[in-house]
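Exercise 7. Predict the joint structure of the components listed below.
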Amino acid sequence: MSERGDPKKIVVPGAAFLMSQVGVHSGQIWRERMKKLGLDSRHVVLLRLVSVEEGRSQLALGTQMRLPPSRMVAFVDELEDLGLLERRPNPDDRRIRALHLTDRGREILNTVMKISADHETELTKGLSEAERVQLVGLLGKVATAQGLAPGVHPGVAFQPPNSAG
Amino acid sequence: MSERGDPKKIVVPGAAFLMSQVGVHSGQIWRERMKKLGLDSRHVVLLRLVSVEEGRSQLALGTQMRLPPSRMVAFVDELEDLGLLERRPNPDDRRIRALHLTDRGREILNTVMKISADHETELTKGLSEAERVQLVGLLGKVATAQGLAPGVHPGVAFQPPNSAG
DNA sequence: TATTGTTATACTCTATAACTATA
DNA sequence: TATAGTTATAGAGTATAACAATA
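Solution:
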């Protein structure tokens, strides 16, 4: 256990609790909005990854999302049923299912980005713009010090209630 | 959808994503440490609630934690097996199981507070003390504006992956 | 008749492993 | 023999509802 700082000076709840409290709240209302689009958070992450580079295999994307192949099948099935994603054959290796966005998938992703921008506005409505920028700066420092990769959310993979994550 | 702000100025990831990213990370490593004590996060919340006011019924505490009675039975069983909590009869109403901490329960709760204080230090190691205080202030403003009750974490109750929370 | 706590049960979501087809 | 994707299956965790004891 670290010995930095004076325990008496640390008020609970402190920054760690507040970040968790507000952060979980942020995720909850964001997922609520995604659900209204018929999407799970992992659907959105998958769509975004495909949009960055189309044609990758299910296994490659599953590895990046830390999802086992059997789960990937289900999520890709669902997105294909929704008409947002396509499995295409790879001529070089017929085992591989190359994933591509449909036009509708691109539209939805656009909608998701608009909703996320609005989510940002709603969540920071208690702050001035200067304060919001300040908050982003401080959180960025924390994220960097914690070794969190930019844009990579640690809560994508499933976490059983009693897990460590 | 809100129309406040200029969408072009909102960079993604912004404050909302960062709060969720860092907040979930905070919760993950905190739960990891609790698990080393043999505790689930809900065990800890329950112990804390009992310590605030001993002798309350399972139903009262379950309502506060938004857990159904059947889940409360399981968690109280587990804490009783660990020797941290006691079910005592209520002479006025023999249906009620009054919950009390054991001495060992109080010790563990003390350990939990020490670990949480250390967790705070570790999580904010990228910040100066002034910055940490600033961050607490900004997050407090956000929490208030979002209507979050102080000290009440929104992630205590179970949330299925596809839920809105 | 209503309420507290317990037990029984069905459901959702998950990871593992067996399997098919390609390589 | 190894790899990409699929299907089958068993387990963990949950909420609902039936239940027993007490009010």
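Discussion. Chain A touches chain B through 76 residues (CB under 8 Å).
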